[in-house]
Amino acid sequence: MDSTKIIEILAYTIPSLITGGVAYYLFNSYFNDQQNTRRWLLQKEAQKEALPLRLQAYERMVLYMERINPTKLLIRIVPVSNDKDDYENLIISQIEQEFEHNLTQQIYMSDECWTIIVTAKNSTIQMIRKANISDRVNSADKLREVLLNDLMEKQSPSNTALAYIKNEVSQMW
């Protein structure tokens, strides 16, 4: 084969290879773009359906925080006897029951928000236990009084969690 034949073959082959490469690149880019668009549309549709569920979960946790707020909890749950330990156990069991009832809501929330809710619950329980151990408490009514007086001096843990929940919901918009 002489050099003119080789040059002639290369003259036809090189433009064909370049055209094929450009076509491959364009088709590949187009298909990737189409795939990304489909993925984005599916994600948008799923988000549209999930938003009401997420908002409902936040609403339920706001209700939970309101219900375990010691000032409201002590008004709602009246002591059955004068025994301070029975009253402490009654209050704590109410907090735990409400928490267990709302346990599944954590799948719709951020881990940080859920941790703050659990911390608020545990802090409320700890506050009740500390007040019951106090020397100032000798009856269920006295326990209520001491807890309410303590809350006048400092903010309840559920109020802190409520503020965080509200902030997280506001960031969803």
Write out key terms for the chains shown.
173 residues; mainly alpha
Quick overview of this protein structure:
With 173 residues, this protein is mostly helical. The chain has helices at residues 3-68, 70-76, 84-101, 111-133, 140-153, 157-170.
Structure overview:
Helix content is 82%, strand content 0%. The chain has 173 residues and is mostly helical.
The protein's oligomeric status is single chain
Structural class based on helices, strands and sheet pairing: mainly alpha
Percent helix, as a range, is over 70%
User: What is the overall pLDDT average?
Assistant: 91
Number of helices: 6
Uncertain regions: pLDDT < 50 for 5+ in a row? none
Secondary structure topology:
Layout: H1 3-68, H2 70-76, H3 84-101, H4 111-133, H5 140-153, H6 157-170
Helix pairs in contact: 1-6, 3-4, 3-5, 4-6
